[in-house]
Design a protein that fits this description.
- It contains four helices and two strands, in the order H-H-H-E-E-H.
- With 89 residues, it is mainly α.
- Helix 1 packs across helix 2 and helix 2 crosses helix 3.
- The protein is globular and about 30 Å long.
- The chain starts with 5 loop residues before the first helix and ends in an 18-residue tail after the last helix.
Length: 89
């Protein structure tokens, strides 16, 4: 498996946060087409689909939701641990 780049991960978190390729592209300062190609490439590298897409809607797959959860810090005092995980999806 090829490791994702920081650019791939930034693109993923932007789309996942906004659930919109248009808004994520605007925030990142790239074209929607470039962002879409980055996400398609990331999904290819990982071998999983991260988003369900229609012409009007973007939503996270279960794998995408698990991946996004890995990017959020563990709240202080929680019992969750993230050490040792390479690819949690």
């Amino acid at each position: 498996m090829v490791r994702p780049s920081l650019n791939d991960l930034a693109a993923f978190t932007a789309v996942a946060s906004h659930l919109s390729f248009r808004r994520a592209a605007d925030v990142m300062g790239v074209s929607r087409s470039a962002l879409s190609h980055t996400i398609i490439g990331l999904e290819g590298k990982l071998g999983i689909r991260l988003f369900d897409r229609t012409t009007r809607r973007v939503s996270l797959t279960q794998a995408g939701a698990r991946m996004l959860a890995r990017f959020h810090p563990v709240p202080p005092g929680s019992s969750g641990s993230r050490s040792g995980a390479r690819y949690p999806f």
